[in-house]
Design brief:
Shape: globular
Radius of gyration: 19 Å
CATH architecture: Up-down Bundle
Number of helices: 7
Structural class: mainly alpha
Number of domains: 1
CATH class: Mainly Alpha
Number of strands: 0
CATH superfamily: Phosphate transport system protein phou homolog 2, domain 2
Helix content: over 70%
Distance between the termini: 37 Å
CATH topology: Methane Monooxygenase Hydroxylase, Chain G, domain 1
């Protein structure tokens, strides 16, 4: 009984950083998928595999949270942060899955633009997460969060442009519906990255 009450040595920051690294890699794989000549099926399979690995990290984090007596930051914040991080890669995996299910073989340029934004946003998330180990450089963490907010705005602009061009230029109604769904999933991934930034900014404020 006493042993169950003693602190465990779980490093939640290791789990956060591992999850962030998997998300960055998934975004890079999606970026490659949007390029001409890509092996789309192989890359989609790789993205799904990375999403599954990220799920495992999320589940381990939550399991360890239930077993750990003393945590480095508030328990609610740990749970909320890992779940919101997982939402990013989930949204990306969903967009990739729709590309496969809809049998898309010609990638529209806006999807490539989304991919570039997501690589940058995921990288900023990873850097902000690394900063949580030492709150002494709060400004650097906040700067990364500001970068994520800016990239979310870029995602919004890409979505507007993509939808306008889609309705103006595409004559196949079914294809319009397919691409609208894909674009919205990609934009949702940028939204979820911003949600992560919001949580991190809250942690910085609480530490000062």
């Amino acid at each position: 009984m006493l042993r169950n009450l003693l602190p465990r040595n779980t490093d939640f920051f290791d789990l956060f950083e591992r999850h962030a690294a998997l998300t960055v890699e998934a975004c890079k794989q999606f970026q490659a998928l949007t390029r001409p000549g890509a092996d789309m099926d192989a890359l989609a399979k790789r993205i799904n595999g990375l999403e599954n690995e990220a799920d495992d990290v999320t589940h381990r984090c939550i399991e360890e949270l239930h077993k750990t007596f003393i945590t480095p930051i508030d328990r609610y914040d740990i749970h909320n942060l890992i779940k919101r991080m997982d939402d990013v890669i989930d949204s990306l995996d969903a967009a990739t899955a729709w590309i496969g299910l809809y049998e898309i073989r010609e990638i529209r340029p806006e999807a490539g633009e989304f991919a570039d934004v997501l690589v940058r946003a995921a990288t900023e998330v990873g850097l902000a997460i690394e900063g949580l180990r030492n709150m002494k450089n709060a400004k650097a963490i906040t700067d990364h969060c500001i970068g994520i907010h800016d990239l979310e705005s870029e995602g919004d602009a890409i979505l507007r442009k993509a939808i306008i061009r889609l309705f103006k230029e595409e004559t196949d109604t079914i294809l319009v519906i397919k691409w609208k769904e894909i674009y919205e999933r990609l934009e949702k991934a940028t939204d979820r990255a911003e949600a992560v930034a919001n949580i991190i900014e809250g942690l910085v404020i609480e530490s000062t």
